[in-house]
Amino acid sequence: MPGPGNSLRAAALLAFVVLSILVSLLISSVQQFGARLSHFSNATVAGDEEAASLRRALNYQLNERRKEILPLLLPADDDDEDDDDDEHGQSGGARHASRLDSTLDSNLWNEITHGSEKTHMDEMGCDSLVDMQAVEVLGSGYTKLVVKVNLAKGQPVALKLVNEQGIDMGKCLEDFKDPEGCRELVSYKLKKEIVLLQRLQHPNVIKLKGHCAADAGGHGTKGGEGGRIAVILEQGNPLQMIQLLQSPWEDRFRVCLDLVRLLHFLSQSPLGSVALLDFQPRQFVTVSGELKLTDLDDASAEETTCRTDADCTLQFPHRNFTLPCTAQGVCGGLNEKMNIYNAYRYFFTYLLPHQAPPGLTHLVDHIMNSTGELKADINQTLDAFEHILLLYKSGLHLDNLPPSIIRDYTMMRGMGTSGNVEYRCWPSYSQQGCVLSVHSPREAAYICNSHPQCNSFTLNGQKTWTGRLLASFRSSFSHLVPDGTSEVYVKKTKAPETSAV
Ligand SMILES: Nc1ncnc2c1ncn2[C@@H]1O[C@H](COP(=O)(O)OP(=O)(O)OP(=O)(O)O)[C@@H](O)[C@H]1O
Ligand SMILES: *[C@@H]1O[C@H](CO)[C@@H](O)[C@H](O)[C@H]1NC(C)=O
Ligand SMILES: *[C@@H]1O[C@H](CO)[C@@H](O)[C@H](O)[C@H]1NC(C)=O
Ligand SMILES: *[C@@H]1O[C@H](CO)[C@@H](O)[C@H](O)[C@H]1NC(C)=O
Ligand SMILES: *[C@@H]1O[C@H](CO)[C@@H](O)[C@H](O)[C@H]1NC(C)=O
Questions:
Q1: Which residue, by CA, sits nearest to atom 13 of ligand 1?
Q2: CA 100 and chain centroid, separation
Q3: Of 10, 36, 83, 467, which has the fewest Cβ atoms less than 10 A away?
Q4: Atom of ligand 5 nearest to the CA of 333
Q5: List of residues 6+ apart from 47 with CB closer than 8 A
């Protein structure tokens, strides 16, 4: 159990982390921030009345944020519009409000605002932050700052904090001129995220390791609220679209498949059908190549109520869709469809078609069309992706490769090469030479035949995430060297006019 001393120490450390990072990285914003404050201090002299009215407006905002979180704390009871209508016909918000005081998970709420105890799924508390080391900033956005941290035992984690220099904080200060109150207001987004991370656990959602709500300075602010909040997360790498665009199709397909698995889960989550309102690549990170959603504060399980189909339009910059208004008076599948179209426009169009394996292009084209036109629901979309994965793993899409092609090569087992003359190909797994994934030696032979520079290739037993083999292609080598697990294939003839078949 963490003692109060440890919590205070963690609070001081948190404050220090925030300060040292901001001072070094954001000096210019700090100066603007200062200018705004001095302007403000002049304004308050003008009248206490104005200050009081600002405080009232801020309190209203704080209350609104709180109300947004409370429904999420209700015991697992889904909002699912189709199969859960027996006990409540009202739409989400109103129904929840009436049950808030009696049934909300007050333990969780206390836990988040006071932060001393731990729940079973959320192991780490303030005590685990004692003696942590901040390594670097992983990212920042409108609301949050994410810092790469090593905990005392050397364990790497990501720490999410309020971004004191973010747009959210800046806007709030401009409106309300109250740094403490604004920190509390912005903290609600972190609190909401903690609740959502606990409720929406999935392999493609970032893992919540714990959180710390430390009272800055150790004063008992009312109810422990307004203290600093830090969310302790599994560490990932921010998704780099530019880098992904240059990666092999297999890796790009993986990101899209992971995204579809996530959306399938979100469409029937414990909270109901969840829409990601701010759907951008920057809301995701990868952990060992696996895609994970990290920004959940804009997730919503609200259903849109309607009277006619016209109330159910989904508007995007280049496309509008109209969905059916169901007999229950909600737009059927609106959240699910919104997610699918966003996946199409932010991910699939960039990552999926380009360089898809020839045997799979018709299936990829079909996915592009059915998601781009919202003709398929998430179940059908997931089925289509899993089907592609199955074909790709099993090599069934390669059926039309001539089996005899491998006879053009002499195979030497237990051998590697040295003195290689490499050539580059694209998109290669290695910067130095040409390394591609293949299903079998036969596919590697087919690829080698199609590269004019290629005269031999090696399979060394390394595999990609799908289990395909990594093959290194090269122009020539000077000698063979013993290498236990590796196989070298050398072209029997170099004459280009010799038939490959
Ligand atoms: N667990 C993590 N590991 C590594 N990087 C992360 C992690 N979580 C978030 N990041 C990075 O930090 C950035 C900011 O986090 P987040 O998106 O939660 O903040 P935000 O203020 O809500 O951002 P936005 O303005 O985009 O909504 C992310 O874009 C991501 O690149
Ligand atoms: C503060 O107010 C005074 C008089 O109301 C004004 O002359 C002065 O310019 C103001 N200062 C700032 C920084 O706004
Ligand atoms: C989508 O609908 C909006 C509002 O009705 C309209 O202004 C816009 O032109 C439509 N866009 C497209 C691409 O049809
Ligand atoms: C889907 O296919 C139809 C028919 O070929 C075509 O008109 C439409 O533009 C395609 N839509 C997308 C999003 O690719
Ligand atoms: C989608 O699949 C889930 C199971 O994975 C099932 O419960 C649900 O009813 C399916 N939805 C539709 C519209 O087929």
A1: 139
A2: 30
A3: 83
A4: 13
A5: none
Q: Whose Cα sits closest to atom 3 in ligand 4?
A: 369
Catalytic residue among 78, 80, 175, 278: 278
Ligand 1 mean position to 146 CA, how many Å? 6
**Parts of the chain with a pLDDT under 70:** 1-47, 75-122, 214-227, 494-501
| Nearest ligand for residue 316 CA | 3
> Is 278 in the active site?
yes
The pLDDT value given to residue 75:
60
199-225 burial, b for 16+ CB within 10 Å, e for fewer?
bbeeebbbbbbbbbbbbbeeeeeeebb
- Please write down the HEC assignment for all residues of 317-354: CCEEEECCECCCCEECCHHHHHHHHHHHHHHHHHHCCC
Select from 344, 324, 343 the least CA-distant residue to 334: 324
Question: Hey, what CATH class is 4-235 in?
Answer: alpha beta
Q: How far apart are CA 186 and CA 180, in angstroms?
A: 10
Q: Is the dihedral of CA 196, 198, 202, 205 positive or negative?
A: positive
Return residue ranges of the chain for CATH 1.10.510.10: 241-398
Rounded alpha-carbon distances, angstroms, from residue 222 to 12, 60, 114, 385, 423: 19, 16, 10, 51, 67
Q: In this structure, what token pair is assigned to residue 489?
A: 């294939």
What is the reported pTM?
Answer: 0.82
- Do residues 74 and 104 lie in contact, with contact meaning Cβ atoms separated by under 8 Å? yes
Q: What is the pLDDT of residues 306-324, one digit of tens each?
A: 999 999 999 999 999 999 9
125 pocket-lining for ligand 1 (C-beta < 6 Å): no
DSSP element (H, E) containing 393: helix 378-394
CA 361, 365, 368, 371 dihedral sign is negative
* 241-398 CATH: 1.10.510.10
Homologous superfamily (CATH) of 403-491 is Hepatocyte Growth Factor (3.50.4.10)
Sequence-ordered list of residues with C-beta below 8 angstroms from that of 69, at least 6 positions apart, any chain: 188, 191, 192, 195
Task: Kindly tell me the number of DSSP H helices and DSSP E strands found in the chain.
Answer: 14, 17
425, with CB counted inside 10 A (0-12, 13-18, 19+), is: middle
Q: What is the pLDDT of residue 9?
A: 63
Q: Where in the chain is the domain with CATH 3.50.4.10?
A: 403-491
pLDDT of residue 29: 35
Q: Cα dihedral angle (354, 355, 359, 363), rounded to 10 degrees?
A: -10
